């Protein structure tokens, strides 16, 4: 199991991350598709080749091909929309919010899986990417769909842990490489 390899690679100084990774994945009460779609989308958003490689291996075994593709589409779409909406939010000129975005996001309307799962994945990726407008939008959609706050919080717990594992393991790879390599 690739998840076990990932957990064993976490250094002792970050052992809380190892336990948190176990908690958000192994101890999760989320349905399998929602959980592993979130894990895959967050691994993609983390931009860590190692974390993505390890978690994608397990996600392939846990998700249908349609769900696997939809989780990747959530990560891809949010990579674009999070930058766009975060930038509009950060600009001091509020008039940018009145302009048409003009970006295609058809997959949000037809993700190929349960729409609530896709919203969940989009929320988690938006947490990794730090887009407040997108977080609010996807959180509202999930609440309208009847998802409670405790369940929604699981999305950003998974996002936080996977991002922290990615940062830690990528830093260790750099720090352990010989100088000049």
TrEMBL record:
Q: Can you state which reaction this protein catalyses?
A: N(6)-[(R)-dihydrolipoyl]-L-lysyl-[lipoyl-carrier protein] + a hydroperoxide = N(6)-[(R)-lipoyl]-L-lysyl-[lipoyl-carrier protein] + an alcohol + H2O
Q: Which cysteines link up through disulfide bonds?
A: 131-134
Which residues are annotated as active site?
131, 134
Q: Where is the Carboxymuconolactone decarboxylase-like domain?
A: 94-175
Superkingdom of the source?
Bacteria
Annotated InterPro entries: AhpD, AhpD-like, AhpD_core, CMD-like
Instruction: Write down the EC number.
Output: 1.11.1.28
Q: What is this protein called?
A: Alkyl hydroperoxide reductase AhpD
Q: Which organism is it from?
A: Streptomyces flaveus
Question: Which gene name does the record give?
Answer: ahpD
